[in-house]
């Protein structure tokens, strides 16, 4: 499959990339930013997208890599999934992101695909948005008016739609460290390398044998990632006990609006959310042996 | 319309400079411009892994990359794996372990296996299977593919007889098969 013809630009600075976006906007060109290309190139090959200009961010130094800010990490938008899955800083302070990144597609795709690219693409079945939402990540965006930051709760706005406006670029993501929390990303698929049918990102803080705080992000339970607020509330103060956790996770589908497709209808997904949430929380608190 | 762009790429140790349309996929550049047809196009949708090559030493699916993105980088294809006329250990292992049937997935399987072993030199069988999740074999010959990769990780040396000569998964599998065949033979012998 051959994409429609397009012009290609490979800027070496963010300023140059912004100027290209501004120029395309002025001339009415349909422009796409190319990060790892693991979603964009397939849709261009299918001609579901046929931009007249592709701006490749792959030659801008400084857009990838991880910086330790003390109480948080700042992750360059162009950091590949493979690095997310294997970086020691990520594994030490935000292992939920390592766990989720390791489930994205397959090794070859993880070598090319990027954290920021996946977040801006905002596929409802993508694996990185729900963990970012559960962690209250902050999205650092730059555009013609200069840099701005958007909190996770306002970032994912709809189906494949985020707070990043035309002419803007997501440059990095800042995530608070979750030292001392248990975490797990539980993904339900039929076959290897499939998109999530449903997945749950769980962060759990246990204090004195009781769950003090829990954060749950749901993948593919609506057009955007969602927090499982009712389950989070039910888990607070809950004993670290399989039955109590299962009871709290029975609320995981409350407030969701999942799609129906060939992999399962909405009712099936609502059921799966409760099962997958339970598995995620059990794993996060170290009770994998009791999963079922 | 879109203009062509000049790229310089090192492929299998040889430097090339070419003008390409930006929409030209890396796999098309390798096959149609450089004649490196050892890299195959299977699904053309980022699923099957037949087009796997190395970009600066890590595996990528060359159907999901534009040739212009490889400008200034090193690409290794299956055709660059053998050195001085001698097959690379993985190629030898695939040959000896009968890790292919129709052979269509083989170049991609070998390139991904090489990348896997670089990142994890001593994978378990499960890690090999997970490491090859982006490569599909429609003959479903996965068992011997996994055995071939494991044998290289285990440092198995292959003798001239064409069988694995030290203890390995391959050896175990071969032994089990041989035992089964022997049992069948003896049963048949008993009946006659």
Automatic annotation (TrEMBL), chain A:
Gene3D superfamilies: 3.30.465.10, CO dehydrogenase flavoprotein, C-terminal domain (3.30.390.50), Uridine Diphospho-n-acetylenolpyruvylglucosamine Reductase, domain 2 (3.30.43.10). SUPFAM superfamilies: CO dehydrogenase flavoprotein C-terminal domain-like, FAD-binding/transporter-associated domain-like. One of its GO terms (molecular function) is FAD binding. It holds the Pfam family FAD_binding_5. The keyword Flavoprotein applies. InterPro entries: CO_DH_flav_C, CO_DH_flav_C_dom_sf, Diverse_Substr_Oxidored, FAD-bd_PCMH, FAD-bd_PCMH-like_sf, FAD-bd_PCMH_sub1, FAD-bd_PCMH_sub2, Mopterin_DH_FAD-bd. Keywords: FAD, Flavoprotein, Oxidoreductase. The keyword Oxidoreductase applies. This is Carbon monoxide dehydrogenase. It comes from Arthrobacter psychrochitiniphilus.
TrEMBL record, chain B:
Keywords: 2Fe-2S, Iron, Iron-sulfur, Metal-binding, Oxidoreductase. One of its GO terms (molecular function) is metal ion binding. InterPro entries: 2Fe-2S-bd, 2Fe-2S-bd_dom_sf, 2Fe-2S_ferredoxin-like_sf, 2Fe-2S_ferredoxin-type, Beta-grasp_dom_sf, Diverse_Oxidoreductases. Pathway: Alkaloid degradation; nicotine degradation. It comes from the Bacteria. Signal peptide: none annotated. Gene3D superfamilies: 3.10.20.30, [2Fe-2S]-binding domain (1.10.150.120). It holds the Pfam family Fer2. This is Carbon monoxide dehydrogenase. It comes from Arthrobacter psychrochitiniphilus.
